[in-house]
Every structure is written in C-alpha cells, then in structure tokens.
C-alpha cells in the first residue's frame, strides 16, 4: 500500500525538518506508528492494539530523500511479530476498519507536543482487487 502525505514548507530546526534531513539512525529512533482497529473482531483488536510503536526499532525501513520529498518504505515482512499479526488480519481484512497515525516522536520538552506526519483509515480492504503496477524503464 502507498500513502502520500504533503507538508507545507518545513520550519527550520523543527523536529520534522530534523527528521526529514537526519540520518537513518535518527529517523529510526523517532518514526512512530499509533495503530487502532475501531471495527474488527476482539482477537484482531487485541493483537493489533493501540500502543504506539517506534517502527524503526521493530521493522526494517528504507528512507529515500529527494529534493522535495522523503519516501519511507516499511518492510513489514522483516518482523516475525508483524508477520504474525498480518497473517491474522489478512483472513478477515474485508471486515476491518484500521486507523494508522504516523508521527515523529519527541524526546525533549522542546519537541512537544508531537505532531502528525499523517493518518490513514483503511476500511474493508479487498486484497483481491489489488493491481501490481507495470513499471516502464
């Protein structure tokens, strides 16, 4: 799945600007996911939970910095735990509503309050309708 979030011009020295321009170690220590499953079976809601997770500490992430963008590729398959949850979710995904909030974690008082990079709601996903794009050279 691909999600796009657009920001206005970055504020110099802001946490988001330092995240975008930082190295992968800094980014991995700050990129946070807050999941929620407002609609789904009890077992899925318990498995996914709503506890914030520093994604860079849990799964492999590749960051690609361009002139006016930062691409963040999250490899869910790199984590046994994430794979287990995904296996549980895939069987019932058409019945689920899943919310995900992405933010940069603040570590100091000056970096608070944390601000969202973006949020998505995935509702009753039909995996069978997915299309693999054909990339041209």
TrEMBL record:
Residues 1-126 form the Protein ENHANCED DISEASE RESISTANCE 2 C-terminal domain. Pfam families: EDR2_C. It comes from the Eukaryota. InterPro entries: EDR2-like, EDR2_C. PANTHER family: ENHANCED DISEASE RESISTANCE-RELATED, PROTEIN ENHANCED DISEASE RESISTANCE 2-LIKE. This is Protein ENHANCED DISEASE RESISTANCE 2 C-terminal domain-containing protein. It comes from Aegilops tauschii subsp. strangulata. The lineage of its organism: Eukaryota, Viridiplantae, Streptophyta, Embryophyta, Tracheophyta.
């Amino acid at each position: 799945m691909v999600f796009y979030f657009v920001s206005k011009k970055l504020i110099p020295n802001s946490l988001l600007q330092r995240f975008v321009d930082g190295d992968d170690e800094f980014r991995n220590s700050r990129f946070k996911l807050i999941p929620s499953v407002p609609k789904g079976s009890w077992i899925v809601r318990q498995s996914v939970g709503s506890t914030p997770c520093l994604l860079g500490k849990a799964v492999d992430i590749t960051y690609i910095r361009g002139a006016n963008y930062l691409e963040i590729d999250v490899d869910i398959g790199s984590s046994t735990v994430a794979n287990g949850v995904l296996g549980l979710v895939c069987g019932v995904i058409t019945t689920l509503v899943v919310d995900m909030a992405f933010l940069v974690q603040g570590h100091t008082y000056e970096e608070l309050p944390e601000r969202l990079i973006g949020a998505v709601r995935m509702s009753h996903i039909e995996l069978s309708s997915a299309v693999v794009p054909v990339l041209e050279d």
